[in-house]
Design goal:
mainly beta; 4-stranded antiparallel sheet; 3-stranded antiparallel sheet; 34% strand
């Protein structure tokens, strides 16, 4: 992945800061956004979402960086148990089935993860 010209990029972390199969929260770099970002790692790929469940508007995690199901197959909203595909953000089970998490634009350059506005 390369940089998109014209986008403002903010460095968030290294890919290796997130355990493979897990997700971590990072402060949203946009001053107008009050929610953290969730970054999910799958091998060398990362996927980013705003930490807001489309069902009730709550954060997904119940404890710091607790986002994944025990088998690491889905992101889970711990408020009502909604399950989301890590690579698409689509809700596959729970009260908001068919809805999506708000995706954010991430870029990887030399193992570093950047947020693009």
């Amino acid at each position: 992945m390369g940089f998109n010209k014209g986008l403002s990029m903010s460095h968030l972390c290294l890919v290796t800061d997130i355990k493979d199969g897990q997700a971590k929260a990072f402060p949203h770099p946009s001053p107008s956004e009050d929610r953290d970002l969730i970054i999910v790692r799958r091998g060398l790929n990362v996927y980013g979402y705003v930490n807001r469940c489309p069902h009730a508007g709550t954060n997904l995690n119940w404890q710091e960086d607790e986002f994944m199901t025990d088998d690491e197959q889905y992101l889970m909203c711990f408020t009502h148990g909604a399950l989301f595909e890590p690579d698409t953000g689509r809700c596959v089970a729970g009260p908001c089935a068919g809805a999506h998490l708000s995706e954010v634009n991430l870029e990887i350059e030399n193992g570093k993860v950047f947020y693009g506005e």
